[in-house]
User: Fold these one by one.
Assistant:
Number 1:
Amino acid sequence: MNPAAGIAAPPPLIVAEQLAKRFGDRPVVRDIDFAIAAGQCFGFLGPNGAGKTTTLRMLLGLSPPSGGRLEVFGEPMPAAGRSVRARMGVVPQADNLDPDFTVVENLITYGRYFGLTEATLRPRIRDLLDFVELGDRAGARIDTLSGGMKRRLTIARALINDPELVILDEPTTGLDPQVRHLIWARLRELLARGKTLILTTHYMEEAERLCDDLVIMDRGRILERGAPRALVREHVPGDVVEVRHPPAGLAESLAEDRAIELETVGESLYCYTREAHALVDRLEARGGVTYLHRPASLEDVFLRLTGRELHE
Amino acid sequence: MSSSGLDWRLPRLRPAALTVCRRNWKVWRKLIWAGLLMNFGEPFLYLIGLGFGLGVFIGQMADMPYLTFLASGVVAASAMQTATFEGMYSVFTRMVPQQTYDAMLATPLEVDDIIAGEMLWCGCKALIAGIAILCVAWLLGAVGDARALLAIPVIFLSGLCFAGPAIVMSALSPNYDFFAYYQTLLLTPMFILCGVFYPTSTLPELMQSLIQVLPLTHAVALVRPLVAGIPLDGVLVPLLVLAAYAVGFFYLAVVLVRRRLIV
């Protein structure tokens, strides 16, 4: 039994009710509701144009909502933007480091925007650069850093005010696997220290690894919410067998099997089933079929919910 | 927010603006020699070339040596140029391609603080340029007496005055090319018409009335007597005009930058 049962849960850090944003006549976020608990990693997933970044900007008080209610740290937004941002860190999608400064100068200048003094900042910067493994690049100019180093520096910059909540907008887009794994490890460390993380991503693997809770958005609406594993269990039971260039007649013969759900995408046939081994045996017996057998993932849920057509 | 999409709330002045100004100062210090070369070199050329070259033929202008007349005009004009270019090209660079303001807005800073800091920095840069010319003019014997030191606060105010419209241009501009309109339609006419090179009393009367609207006329009217060491008459109107431009365009700049960044 949960010993905490019966004790009221702490109020959520962020509450949005019927939150909406329009640009002129164009709705970008349509009456969404969500609550984010302290200490968790919360994900906003969605294709381009889903309204993720706009939602984050509303959380920061940088985009006045067109409707609904939004509270961050129990304060109304965007009115409390200034005090709320003092307790937040932000890793934006585009690198906007100051190109005229070195690594350390970037962090000092940024820390001053929070009203912090150099005496406070110096030791903190040393720790932060070690945390993101840039300790040996303290004096480097920004244009000498690789993309991965810039992103790590941006993460260090977001932590300069020792925030309770860190917002990351597609933190690992465009980075190589080594850097992505380093960043994931650091983000987990921040969670272990009790920080709350909010991230947007369209990498489903990233969301599965990091998020305790997430929403899937498309065209300004929340389509689904929950923990990654629970969403997979609910929407794509079992395994997926992808057949490349299925031979003629295969789809028709598999369609008779009620345990298999089929979907054709381009040159591939997706088979969703709880009895994957039986299906694999069938394919093997038939021979000459190229297939990939894997467990269902968040990506399958995502594609089922948001559709496979391009979102451009 | 009003239905027009413009946030007309009055800007608030906070000490946080100083951190923005300080950032620019730190960057300027890194490139100090290039900056100073420009601040000292250009006016030096003007004063040597025009002051001595033309001065030989002109002798006195408005009861003072032409070198003094020109130097005092160039002090005001250079406050205008410096503040304008900082407010247009540099501010636009930080606002759009470099996204420095986006980074700042993720901290407790607001648009009010950023624009106040930028205005302050434009004033400081005008000060650096103006003082550089005063030094050159003094070395060339073109400065009247110690009253010239009183020109320093006027140079700073002129910097604020010209920064406002320049930042407004940045807030409206889709790209760098857009600034050519402002340069050709306002900056160059002011440089030529507002009394930098000759007394405005020689202009046709209609023109004389028209240039009263332009702030450089008033900056020159204040700086010239102070540098030449002759009595000032009518301080109030020029000071009010410069201050009105500074305050009015600061407010407008804040509103327009809010429209551009807080969407």
Number 2:
Amino acid sequence: MEQVTGRMIIIMEIITNIVMPCIYSFAASFAFSVQFNIRKKFMISAAMGGILSQFVLAFLQLNGISEMSGYFISAAAISAYSEVLARRLKVPVNMHLVVAVIPLVPGGKMYYSMVTLINGDINGFLIQTVETFGIAGAIAMGIFAVSSVFIIMKTIKQKRIKKLPCNKNTGQ
Amino acid sequence: MNENELLEITSEIGYLMIKYGAEIFRVEDSIKRIISAYGTDKNIAVEVFAIPASLIVTIQTDGGFPITQTKRISSRCTNLDRVDKLNSLSRNICRTKPDFETVMKHIEEIKKRSEYGFKTIVISYAVVGFTFALFFGGGIKDAVIAGIIGALIKLVSTLLEKIKPSIFLESVVCSILAASLAIISMRIGITERFDKIIIGSLMTLVPGITITNCMRDFIAGDFLAGLYTMTEALIIAAGMAVGAATTISFLTGA
């Protein structure tokens, strides 16, 4: 009996910490892709990026990895996802990256850092702001790292082909 | 195609790409590729300089005078579908080298491509507010209110477009609206806390395209363009903070 309840608790934890954020971020990314005027054909694949970002982040945090590295790895994952899809579907990288990055934006932290400032708690404000900018930096660095690798790969490939200035260039 | 026509199509394509939210390196790269595709026999030299606010294209043939066209991009609207179409158009131009009229016809077609209707966009704002309120830990009531506020934000920002506000003013007004409605809904007793509602509804204003373009421009080495977009994102964030902060301190007396 105890085993069963223990298992139930674990399942509930997984649902609240991983499944629900993934569903929310899928819906949010899907709605955001309307704002960016992404065609219906690519809306699902763009919103899947939202799931990927939340899944990686929640999974890593459940396994006790620090917040910053969680955001870094998650941003790297969505960046790789959108670079690969861009080459496969021959669309700009932005189309998938923009939508997938939005659920990672630390909106809650920004809000609470502002609230601490209003309340006159300067120490709290500093802590929250540094954390917010740290997360923003981690996301940027994650995208930087993966995109740089892809740019290097592209340069190597182009040197190998070396044709007219207008060969079949994809993605970028 | 002569140089003047070449200059016209490239600067038009570049202008539209920047306007619809493409990265700067993509714009510069497409223009260079198109011109070099046409100019292989005439030996045309090309210089392109673009930032999110302006575009300068100069081409020079052998022994001729250089000719330049400058475009000022004063307003931008995100439309990734059209960016994608312009991108494949420029790739097509490189491959098939069509004449001037054909290219202009394609550009006009892309300009007229259908967008999502106003109702759909309002609904999408509502969905974004709803889901982000849940995402940041709000209850279902908070989420519904955040969704309604999200839709109202879109309506108000469309109304504001008529007076052409600065991005700062626009985000201040929208966040004042969000914060005051959230606090009012707490006062009349629909929910107990208003923070999740404000966070959820303000997530609709996150400038996603600005943030990603900023990072990608920095990676590509276009630091001026990266700084431009980064400043824009920071100003929007500052506007949201100012609006929400003043409203909260007025209405809750903190």
